[in-house]
Amino acid sequence: MADRAQAETRIACRFLRCQRRTRRRRHRPPRTACRNDEGRLFLRLRFFLQRRWSAQRPRTSVEPHGRRQRCAVQSARGSHRCACRCARNRKRPRISGDRFLFRKRSRKSAQQRARGHRSFFHHLPCAQCRRTHRGRNHAVCHVLGRRQPTARFQSAPPRGLNRALTRMDGRHFMRFSVIVPAYNAQMFIDDCVKSVLAQNYFDMELILVNDGSTDSTPEKAEAWAKKDARIRCLNIENSGATGARLAGLNAAKGEFVLYLDADDVWDDGLLNAVDEALTASRADVVMFTFRRVPGNEVHPFEKDGWIERDEWTRKLITTSDMNMVWDKAVRRELALSCPVDASHRGVAEDLLMILPVLDKADRFYYIDKPLYRYRAVMDSRSNSFRANRHFEIDAARTQVLDYLVEKDLNSDENLAAFYTLYADRMLNCLARAAKAGADKKTMKAMFREVRSFPLFQMARFYPLNLSKNKRAQMMLVTWRLDGIFMKLAKRA
Description:
CATH topology of the largest domain: Spore Coat Polysaccharide Biosynthesis Protein SpsA, Chain A
Mean pLDDT: 74
Number of domains: 4
Number of strands: 10
Distance between the termini: 118 Å
Low-confidence stretches: 57-106, 113-125, 130-172
Structural class: alpha/beta
CATH class of the largest domain: Alpha Beta
Shape: elongated
CATH architecture of the largest domain: Alpha-Beta Complex
Helix content: 40-55%
């Protein structure tokens, strides 16, 4: 009888060892389950702890009789372990001293599968706020967990969420940071925020920068921040659009930065289109087409694809379509590495902010789709009449000329195109001031200051490709016939 009992004990122990091997093989993670080194390291640690738990589990002496054989030795948790692995005792104990909870592997129902992927990362503390999140990292918790603690997806997760789930390095918690400088924009800020939230893209944040507004813009921004966890609100003193953008850039956490004016809106699918272009090209700057409202579409380039440095430099010289910052997605590290003078305000501030970025960018990609709707508001900062607007135009074009000289691009052809655009912008500024009803004293001062600019004096010696009306205006300003210029400008 003793020999028989020993034989049955050996058979039972062999059965238990086989069960351990089967369980290890079944719980071994697939090699394709991880998309980065950090996730693979966590899964290796999980497999190691499973082996450790299996190795440290107390040996059991199995009784040779009875249909339901119980363990003679209790486990560390004080519960019996069944040798036949019945359904009642299949639950595994928690490892003492560790924060990992290995739950039993069971079949999931269709309702459970629709809730999304849940793994052992659910029990890891967050490195940023020291809390246990519903997702794998801090971004998923604060996108879906804080405002919607029971957020579930009946189908696949939205585009962009998978990237946040697999990003474990802690450097970038999101793909895009959208910065909106707002100054007295109570009439347009709601439409602006709605156009951003309407994007079918969750791996992003929206930063509303209140630039010292005196209307209800701060209250509306705070209300939006309470509705959605992806929205943050910053309140600063009035420092202009460049200062507000720099404040938002310093607070951004995304991998790429996009700027959006408070009185403009996005078309649906902008973030998805930019994300696809960045994934395919790995560019530093992605530019897209915009549409004027009211007005037509602006296509700086002819087709999608890579843009060479010479090509966009030619556009920078001949047109003003490259001056804006809100039609580009820029890598955040690249934008932070470019010094910007925040004290300069006016029409030149966009160009002074984007020109260093374009100079340092290695890869430039263009999307030939009208994804941005530019709303021309006549009482805004950029479109309203200002007595010092001609100084801003001269400062902006001076920066462009310095760039051309520094890069040895000051050929006669480029300089002729440069001075043509300069004269056209300066004559438009003088005509707008005359139409706005500026007094005679202000207009005389403007004419005198424009004629004293070195760039305007040099423009007279280059063949300018201007229309007949602009040529006549140029002659009137050069010959000091200011009264005739004002009369013709008011009639036009």
